[in-house]
Amino acid sequence: MANSEKASSDISPSREQQNQRNLIRLRLAISSSFGQLNLLIAVCDNLDYRNELIQAYEAKLAEDGAVCHRVKLDKSQPSLKNALLTVETTDGAKTVVTILGADELLGVRLDDSKSELEKFFFSVQWTREGLREFKFPVVIWVTERVAAGLTEAAPDFWSWRGGGSFEFSRPFSFGFPQSPDYFQKFRGAIYNPNPIGDPQELSDQIDILLKDSPNSPLLGSLYYSLGKIYADRLEQGKAINYQDEQNKAVSAFEEAIDRQKNESANQAQSLNALAKLFKFSGRYQDAEPLFKRALSIREKEFGLESIETATSLNDIGELYAAMGRYQEAELLLKRSFNIREQKLGVDDPDTAMSINNLAILYVSMGSYQDAESRYKQVLSIREQQLGSDHPDTASSLNNLATLYARMGRYQEAEPLLRSALSIKEQQLGSEHPDIATILNSLTGLYRTTGRYLDAEPLSKRALSIDEQQLGPRHPSVAASLNNLATIYQEMRRYQDAEPLFRRALSINEQQLGPEHPSTANSLCNLGALYRTMGRYQDAEPLSKRALSIHEQRLGSDHPDTAISLNNLAMDYQNLERYIAAEKLLSRSLEINQSQFGNEHPHTIRMIANLGAVYCNMGNLSKGEKYLNTALLLSKKVLPEDHPDILLIQKSLQNLEKSTGKKNSGKTLDLNSSNSPSGFSSKPKKKKK
Amino acid sequence: MATTPLEKLQVAYRALDLFPLVSAESIDRYRVEYGREVLVRLEKEVEASDERGKFVFAGHRGCGKSTLLKTFAVNMKKQNNFVVFFSVADLIEMSDVSHINILYSIGIILLSHATRSRLTVPDDIKRELLDWIQGDSQIVLAKEAETTTTGEVELDLGVLQEFLPSVNLKLQREQKFREDLQKNFEKRISDLVNTLDRLAATIKAGTKKNVLVVIDDLDKLDLSVVEGIYRQNIKALFAPNFRIVYTIPVSALQEPQIVGAINQEGSGKPKFFPVAKFFTRDDAQERNAVPIERSIKVFEEILSKRFESGLLAPGIARKMVLASGGVLRELVRIGRECCTECMVQLEIDPDRENACIDDEILNIALDNLRNDFSRQVLGGYSALLVQVYKTLEPVEDEAFTKLLHGLLVLEYQNGDMWYDLHPLVAELLRRRKLIN
């Protein structure tokens, strides 16, 4: 008793210890009952942790020669007996069966008179006698919700359980797997089927000219073309030796810039092409001055209000958006849009592209309403100009749907994606890379809503299209791999997820370079998987490497850097290094607040994570305040059944339970700018 | 050999082709040494220029530009240049010429010349120029290439007729094609220019010669079109990294913005091919002034190369020359009109002996030609014309460039510079008692 009191007043250090003790208890209970029926109820809400625990006892038991089975309850017939009947046992073998899936049973009645969960309760209540035929220990994993239901609906069964119950808990934390949103540019921009020239043929021509007339002005254009050929090969995944061709592209462009008439339109074109290559390679800092030089030439050559200038403004705007310099990006993209609207009209494809780019920016900034109105505008332009069954119209549908998915408006998202898919399939055939993009959006939606079985085949199809059409080393393939792996991760099929994440990482490392932000995202993803699997020691170095790339390439106040900080903090929290975790989380929260303000889903997650860390450190009132704040904000911003809200509510309940005190309801003062955590209600302007 | 007077007149008539001399044969036979100084200067300047030099060549309609440019092209070819000469009029519908289809035409012409020369043109270049063409407009290049023969590229327009006739036809006749072309390239002019450079490089690498493109007849465009092309898009036209000679109407040089744009981008100021001066400025309106014999002689030679002896009555050639105002094409028109009139006389009076062009015929011919002008003069420009006649200076008026464009007013350059009325126009005003 004294022990348990101590545990509740000082949750953090003992929580893990308690968990470990319970794990040993469970394992001993199992191994003590080989050859006889023993019903063991294990309770854990943290599903990732649950899987970690199962792996842990199964591994240990297997060492002793046990055969471990896992059986999932059949949703259509959620009976424990039926589940156990599927297990094939051999006489004399040490057998243990782990029952999963109780947590996935729906508690609401659909058309049936009983809900899935009620059926399950009913089955255990009245069939316990029939279970005697099974001569092995059974571990039934449930969540607290199910456990509570069992005590009420199947009291007989609950009291009958022989082995006892084993409770496990671990504070939640939000990792941020870097799974990309599949916002789509319009056709051609994403998949450019333009012919790529032969670099060897062109190099030979250059050699001839260099020999005959080394100062020919044509050489400038030839070097530009050579650079373009290599850059296109890189972008389309056709490069044979990535690093080598990247270097060749860079030096060809540099040679072109050197040779072309200073301040000429041609030179601006080369500068822009090199800048784009740098951007593609994640070398944002190198790209910026080149883009700016190209802009200044075009302003002079074609005029401040020319479409050429608008193109440059748009390019820099997109770069700044990638660099997280959102305010600057917004200004430039708006300027570009204004010029295009004036010169080309609002219906021009380039103008529509500008609106689309602004929408993408607003998504990054978390200004979903602004993004929505723009996506809708683009959609209506496309429908009017190109018709409702044009592939570009479908891209617009995809973008709007992806935004809706982010906003938690899942019901609205799905039909849009479905019609986008059918348009693209009709217009482009079923093997076009655009199809893969839509499929990835759709699987993202299914994954978020827990429809893993629907998601998996679509994700596989997307991967196979990308592999077939773009080649196995294309960065899009890495994105598709990542997508499928994330589904497996959430289905807790870690063994399936890991090799996919690894392959994605290796593609990005090889194709984009070890220092590319996308490589960092891959590291984040693999790290998140290891974290979920409880392999904290393996996760930490990955998170660290990702953070260092983000800091170096994107700067210390970029939102992706904030995500990396958050992820590393999660590793530290799991390693019970709370002080370090708190430090990193505070930094990541500060970045997000200054970029997006408080009412951004990521900011809210960070506030919640910080709250959890404070609880773990024993500062319960502070932790509670943060969690209450996170709950308040998330209810304001997110739809009411958003998983984040449920998770925060859950941890507040856990907190109440472990302290035995009612929630004080206190929150942080969001309007005070001098509060210790630097809360302020609006995003601060960037310091730069 | 023409024997009868009628035959002789027919020969002369044909020799007075309004089209410039562009074939080597006709140049040899009919060309007189005219504008040599301008020609030599142009050659020397182009030779001395940067390899990406651009030149703008201006002159009155019909002052002999095309013939001179053709001679220029032949001479430059001898200097080891890969010369591509074409008339924009042969390629594009004149009302729809734009900087984009000019550049595109250069690309198509370079491609056809390169293919004819059996040079291997990288596939992506061909596709950049031809792949955008949709559906039934699709042009098959490979087939055309097979039918071509080896050997030097001929400098005649026949090249165009043989090669890529489909593109040519489309540019001429299909508005949809021109619209698609415009749409496809208007936002990627730099890409188009880069493609032209790569074609030029292919030619240079394969032939060891520098590409020189001469585009004739851009000066035939409407003034408003010229304005759009030269003032707003001069940078694009001057962007290719090889030498190009463009032509421009003399009237466009009255637009300070166009001249400014050209001066800023080009290799020096526009090259001007002046009309012949028959009088000094001081003598311009002196009815009995003695003309500049050297200029008169050249023009007389043009006539003597085309009219068999005896067809022109003594002294009549000089009168025809003076009525031309120094504009070659005007002389040709007068000559033709005289031939026609003379043939009419022969028809009416077949037995007439010694049928030749005399004062009577010349006067009727000039009257016919004057009627062309009278419409414009009546159109309300008479006050302006009177002012030019009295001051010999340009008038600050939009209409002035139109008058220049229409050859009612002529610009006399080279040293002393002034403006004067076309002699036929001056006579028209005189008859209406608007001037003395």
Biggest interface: chains and residue counts? A-B, 33 and 28 residues
Q: Return the average pLDDT of chain A rounded to an integer.
A: 83
Helix-strand string of chain B: HHHEHEHHHHHHHHEHEHEHHHHHEEH
* Structural class designation of chain A: mainly alpha
- CATH class categorisation of one domain in chain A: Alpha Beta
Count every beta strand of chain B, where a strand is a DSSP E run of 2 or more residues.
7
Oligomer: heterodimer
Strand order of the largest sheet of chain A: 2-3-4-1-5
| Tally of helical runs of chain A | 29
What is the helix fraction of residues of chain B, given as a range? Answer: 55-70%
List keywords for this structure.
heterodimer; A: 688 residues; mainly alpha; Rossmann fold; Serine Threonine Protein Phosphatase 5, Tetratricopeptide repeat; 29 helices; disordered N terminus; disordered C terminus; B: 436 residues; alpha/beta; 2 domains; five-stranded parallel beta sheet; 7 strands; globular
